Amino acid sequence: MDPAIPAGFALVRRIGPFTADTLPRGLLGEHRLKPDRWGHLTLEAGAVRLVWDDGSSRSEDLAAPAQALIPPEVPHHLEFTDDFVLRIDFLQQAG
């Protein structure tokens, strides 16, 4: 999957790149983005699983190169079993 960044959104913050050793542990537990923020995960190497904690039982197995778009306020977390390199861009509606 190669999601597009929603039109009219701009980068407000970038974190990473992270590896299995440097990933903030908070990303491994359920969390959500602010109401006005989208996340754009870019997986540069390795593999991770993006799990949606919204009661849908959905997950996405991402293998590099891959991207995932994370909407505001949707609970989710990351899982991994091997090393990876990823970064996350935070986007907000421009205006």
Automatic annotation (TrEMBL):
Tree of life domain: Bacteria
Domain TehB/YeaR-like: 15-84
Name by which UniProt lists this protein: DUF1971 domain-containing protein
Phylogenetic lineage: Bacteria, Pseudomonadati, Pseudomonadota, Alphaproteobacteria, Sphingomonadales
